[in-house]
Amino acid sequence: xxxxxxxxxxxxxxxxxxxxxxxxxxxxxxxxxxxxxxxxxxxxxxxxxxxxxxxxxxxxxxxxxxxxxxxxxxxxxxxxxxxxxxxxxxxxxxxxxxxxxxxxxxxxxxxxxxxxxxxxxxxxxxxxxxxxxxxxxxxxxxxxxxxxxxxxxxxxxxxxxxxxxxxxxxxxxxxxxxxxxxxxxxxxxxxxxxxxxxxxxxxxxxxxxxxxxxxxxxxxxxxxxxxxxxxxxxxxxxxxxxxxxxxxxxxxxxxxxxxxxxxxxxxxxxxxxxxxxxxxxxxxxxxxxxxxxxxxxxxxxxxxxxxxxxxxxxxxxxxxxxxxxxxxxxxxxxxxxxxxxxxxxxxxxxxxxxxxxxxxxxxxxxxxxxxxxxxxxxxxxxxxxxxxxxxxxxxxxxxxxxxxxxxxxxxxxxxxxxxxxxxxxxxxxxxxxxxxxxxxxxxxxxxxxxxxxxxxxxxxxxxxxxxxxxxxxxxxxxxxxxxxxxxxxxxxxxxxxxxxxxxxxxxxxxxxxxxxxxxxxxxxxxxxxxxxxxxxxxxxxxxxxxxxxxxxxxxxxxxxxxxxxxxxxxxxxxxxxxxxxxxxxxxxxxxxxxxxxxxxxxxxxxxxxxxxx
Length: 613
Known about the structure:
About 65% of the residues lie in helices and about 5% in strands.
């Protein structure tokens, strides 16, 4: 009866009104601010990646910047349309992992999940280093301190996200708006220029354009296309984090995805047009976006506004990973592929363990790269392309199975996208293999192996626990409670009161040592115990070494041997000070005993807190 009542109350509470947790979830606008920063900020390094590849063919090669960008914009349109469909078909989030899990099998879904994990982790490192690179382009004297600045920015973003994804979105709305307005202003003003207003940003920096090369081959164009597709990173983040949106979640996420695609496409094409109009030449030590701002707006306050806005948004674009990866880890934890702790949520819908794990790994990557963006970008693109390819291949199978209105056209769209991103994955891996991409080639299967290992461990644990099977009825056994004591006090009295309430038999134990002072202490305790006469035997445990946990654990093992059918509980009394700082005054004896008993016996451990109010 009580179970039925609890279920009916739960049902009534879920239908009575809006979810109170919705205030800690995202709207379309805050979702755009929290989950699209990665994609929007990639305009700072995506066009530059294209230009740097084409520069190998000299000035003639740079003339292909706009056609390559248009091809990337076309792929962007395909991806946005595809991920809008993913959002509708998989409203519980997970993106390519969820698609592959349903349509491509478990192993492929793990490849997708591993690629997403690598993508999110690398995104944090790339975003932070690119943001600091924008800062050092404007203020070269800070270049030597870029690693310290990177770690400080990472710490700031982590602290903001520990307060909740909605709180982080509110913080990032203004920087996002400033960046988007600054880029569109740069484009609009530049379109009315006949030539660069200023080249001061590039003065004194060596050009990286090849002098003699003039041939532009298909491989070079493919490499430029693949490198430029780093600008598409983050397109999948909204589909991965649909549960973070308010109801109706799928519709809000689809709106955010469409706005993201429109803004990103317009900015990429606009910047490519300006690169061609100003015949920009990439140079060492200064970003392409900085040169465009200089050429369009002049080397004045507007130039520094663009650089500062770019730096802020690039640094904050790491927030996309903090919004997407914890949700993905929650799904993986539910499927027993990562530790279950990642499925836990704190207040404000915060996946605290996921946030902290992401911050720790990203910090290690920053230390590995020394804060250099170019070291990380080759690693970054591979995971992105793998995720894109898996998601769109899965959606082709989805349309074939589900069918429906115009399913052939949708399947063809997803198939074309899968082909393009698959080619991009192969080209990036081949061309960047010796630049560090080999690390991802090794890390991806190792991560899949780790996920499989965790799953097997949970499977074995489940079998041992009999999860999914009806257990035998509970039966009563003899209960024996062991209470470690060191002297007579209210704590000892409270511990014995609790012990006699729990068990059929209670034994107090104390560890004694063979030193004169210790012998006197033991004799005094034995005399006081006899005078008190609590009705509980006091057992002395001699110890040759000054340890506490070992003798207690050895005694518990002996009790198990002499009473094989008994349920043994070790009740450890501990004081809880009235003030936090007073905890440093405690000797932690209880924790030492608990660890020894847990490590060496099968006894139950009960830690009794005696509050000193």
